Amino acid sequence: MAPASRMPHRDASSRRHEFLELRAELLERLRQFFRQRDFVEVETPLLLDEVIPELHIEPIPVAGRWLQASPELAMKRLLAEGLPAIYQVSRCFRHGEIGRLHNPEFTMVEWYRTGDDLASGMELLGELCVDLLAGADCKTTAVGEFRAAQRTTYADALASHAGVDAHGATPAELAAAARRLRIEPPVDFPEGDCDEWLNLILAKAVEPKLGAAGPEILYEYPATQAALAKTRTNGEGVTVAERFELYLRGVELANGYHELLDAAALRERLETVNRQRTADRRPALPLPEKFLAAHEAGLPDCCGCALGFDRLAMLASGAESIADVMAFTWND
Known about the structure:
Blueprint (H helix, E strand, L loop, with lengths): L2 H34 L3 E2 L5 E2 L11 E3 L2 E3 L4 H10 L3 E9 L11 E10 L3 H18 L14 E4 H9 L8 H10 L13 H13 L9 E7 L8 E3 L5 E10 L2 E8 L4 H17 L9 H10 L3 E7 H9 L15
Parallel strand pairs: 1-5, 7-8
Antiparallel strand pairs: 2-4, 3-4, 5-6, 6-12, 8-10, 9-10, 10-11, 11-12
């Protein structure tokens, strides 16, 4: 083969190697960040005999166990045993997710610290993001000068970018908003479900505009989207979820909770998820009894967060896809 024919392959390989070097630098800075704050790095199993039921995530079964979509199950058991501040860089797995921002196997950074509430959890996440992006040799412009993550409520984001009342709109009103925004729902869309409409409008009309000038944290999600987070009444008298998400350049990077502690409430929420899965003609999943037992034993008040490391590396390097910053993808 002529040298000129090999050049594109060499150029692509060289670019991939540069991205992998930056990825390694980011990982080193991340570990330094947590060491400076007295977090303990832990390692937990990738295969467990239980899994957290989730509505939109399909776990991958292997030999009678489950590849974990998040290290949350085991990490919360460690918190219940008395470790006060832990983090993990973990391989995680989700069935069928392939695309610019998805790979069935991916790297997640997850951390928990006891004593943290919603505000301190958001502050820590913002510090981490700015520290990593401003300190590494990043191609992401304008982040170096951005010294704090902007905070925006879910309601304000939906109102300003989509003209939607996130906490008061009916399904019919949300459907009308989607038509106005020229958003077409998929086949078999549950048109009577407010949360599904909100998720669709958020994904199509709001998320692409978030984090345009630097890291932006969305918080005060609807209480019906609390998942494993606590709920509270905000200053406007609306019950909201104590959860938050970080965006940069329209890409969701992280998802955090002021963690729900009530074991009975947690069991009820997981049972609700299973009922929704059954209604969607998907199998219900066994409840994670060891996980629930850790809550019953006394999970301490804490805030936790999960960050998609591949996405962070993609944005930091200026790459177009997470595939560019991974040594190998699912299809390689």
